[in-house]
Amino acid sequence: MTTPLAGAAPARPPFWNDPAVRALVFQALALIAVIALGWYLVHNTQQNLAQRGIASGFGFLNNAAGFGIVQHLIDYSPADSYGRVFWIGLLNTLLVSVLGIVFATVLGFVVGIARLSRNWLVAKIAMVYVEIFRNIPLLLQIFFWYFAVLRTVPNPRNSLAFGDAFFLNIRGLYVPRPVFGDDFVWVLGALALAVVLAVLLGRWARQRQATTGQPFPVFLVSLAILVVLPGVTYFAAGQPLTWDIPKLAGFNFRGGWVVIPELAALLVALTLYTATFIAETVRAGILSVSHGQTEAAGALGLPNGLTLRLIVIPQAMRVIIPPLTSQYLNLAKNSTLAAAIGYPDLVATFAGTVLNQTGQAIETIAITMSVYLALSLGISMLMNWYNKRKALVER
Amino acid sequence: MTEPNPPAATFTPHPDLPPPAATTGVIGWLRANLFSSPLNALMTLLVAAALLRWIPPILDWLIFSADWSGSSRQDCTGEGACWVFIKQRLGQFIYGFYPEDQRWRVNLVWVIAVVASWPLFLKRNRLQVPAGLFMLFVFPVIAYGLYTGPLFGLPHVETSQWGGLMLTLTIAVVGIAGSLPGGILLALGRRSKMPVIRTLCVTIIEFWRGVPLITVLFMSSVMLPLFLPEGMSFDKLLRALIGVVLFESAYIAEVVRGGLQAIPKGQYEAADALGLNYPKAMGLIILPQALKLVIPGIVNTMIALFKDTSLVIIIGLYDLLNSIQQAAVDPNWLGFATEGYVFAALLYWVFCFSMSRYSQHLERRLHTGHKR
Predict the structure, then answer these.
(1) B336, closest residue in chain A (CA to CA)
(2) Do B118 and B103 belong together in one domain?
């Protein structure tokens, strides 16, 4: 065995053992493999399409759709184009996602806090709810609410009435619709003014407390401003808001808003399912704030409410928010299960009906996937930015 | 050293008074846990009232007024659930359209699976390595052979005849077994120092994680045939499996990446210092530690996958949920969908809940060592 002399350059390894060369070779091979695979797939696809006589391209988006959609948030008739169907589907997806996110967040926070309650019964009920609903597939829950519950309610003549304004029957849930008069603009204006005032008040109060140390009951005063100002305007403008209450006319209800059973079932199932995951997130977040923090707050003489507001919640939110957003994303992605019960969301209308009618599989699925992809990537970028801002800066 | 005996007439303590009745026993527990404040008392009463109002009718429907025996819907006369429906259709829910006289093959596969994988769930023992190798390499062949038939000279059973719980379990097991190696490779690729490999893996992972499983299934059932050369076609089940494996790999990759990031840098450096090349360093030093760390995460992914198998209904496979859907629209048994859903929910729940309990148990058992 010879030892190299100090100072003498060690012999260069043969080039196939040089890590840099190896890395280059591996990457080149990977690139070639991917390109070859891509070319192979594109080639096959082109041949198959030619064989089946399917023209590719996005021209079909301008053709008339020719089918009706039960729920559309913007005007739509079967004579409209496939492009418009896309927007209808997207809006329906967004509607159910946004509503689901709001309801699931509220329920999730309530249940998450209830699981930590010192009341044994409440904590156990919350636990049972979470363990049951998160271990049953969402699709099964949607089917249950749709086929077993909402398909078995009575016909319009024998609707279940809640008060004289809400009716539930096989066609859906009928709720009163607000009708805004022309003068309602004033109320909106007053509301905007009240919000601005409340914000200014909050700023002024913080400054005052910083300089003089005197607190100001910001919350109650802002609440008063927010209620009184629009309220007074509402009555001064002559109550420009009326309700269009659904009424039974013949075999069906007229007037009001109708929540179609598909939307209701999807919403109930999504809310109950996602809320269990949000509850666990919230619970973990609150538990992650160490007990020392609460004790320190107690030692500083903070009352319970302030401890929660100033010490526990801000630290818990740092832990809660990232998984919370991924639950929101999951909810949006899970809303695609709408296709199974016929709620006209993006997948059901566009990747379903439009695909079947036109046969443009590649285009429709590519468009649908890129919508969800854009949504996911957009939100995760937002999340990364938020995490960077909020991450603990350690010494 | 001896203590001097105390004089006889010294102080004898008065016997302790018992603790106040309100702080011990049942009453004490009630006061501490249910009625500690007016607000708590109110909540307790409200919840208790709601429970008393809702639980008895549900139990009555489920058990006391339910019909348990019989053979047709005429036997379901009571107010409660009609479990006769489930009893009559149980074979279909478990085996789908698998020929009745061949169902022993499915049972045999399940028995082999349970017996052979049993040592893996126990404490460390000598059988673990052979059992693991058997499950990894021999079992898939046996299962495939028994399920389809010709390999062992049995009558052929088309995959379109598979269904019910059997199909659900097949998709879940193949999905997880297929996505583990894929996920590990993607995770390693994502941590690679080579920019091309890394970009490739990041793209694949983010793409599959960004799209909903339904669109993936749609894609694999509609677009996959277009991608393949003329004359080559997969059956529907295989197409669904490919979609599920691709989708799940991305999720496993992110779980494994978490484990890789948790391994201290010293371990990587130590492997380099020993002169191990990349496959050896990963296979002998890094991955064993990283995978041990993320076993709970992998089990959680398995639970999610098990629930997601129900989505194959969208592309028309007859899994557990779909077989119940089909039975519920059978004119002979119209109106018993709820019983079907409750039964399916119970089956899914038992599987998912036991997996999640097992994962918690593993988390406790593996919670040693890796604390820094």
Answers:
(1) A148
(2) yes
In a domain, A386, yes or no: yes
Domain count across chain A: 1
What is the rounded average pLDDT for all residues in chain A? 85
Contacts of B213 in chain A (CB under 8 A): 333
Q: pLDDT tens digits for B249-283?
A: 999 999 999 889 888 889 999 999 999 988 899 99
Low-confidence residues in chain B, pLDDT < 70? 1-8, 367-372
Smallest CA–CA distance, residue A167 to chain B, in Å, is: 23
- Which stretch of DSSP H or E encloses residue A249? strand A247-249
Nearest to B140 by CA among B91, B181, B92, B96: B181
**Would the pLDDT of A6 be above 70?**
no
Q: Based on the domain organization, do B253 and B149 belong to the same domain? A: no
Instruction: Give A145-159 as a DSSP string.
Output: IIIIIITSSPPGGG-
**Closest to B258 (Cα-Cα) out of B191, B319, B212:** B191
ipTM here:
0.86
Mark whether B179 and B318 lie in a shared domain. Answer: yes
Whether B215 maps to a domain, the answer reads yes
- What domain range is B221 assigned to? 160-323
For residues B164 and B122, membership in a common domain is answered with no
Do B214 and A339 make contact, defined as CB atoms within 8 angstroms?
yes
Per the structure, how many domains does chain B have?
2
Q: Is B207 on the interface with A (CB under 8 A)?
A: yes
Q: Does B215 reach chain A within 8 Å, measured CB to CB? A: yes
Closest CA of chain A from B136, distance in Å: 28
Tokens of A325: 């957003």
| Same-domain pairing of B281 and B164 | yes
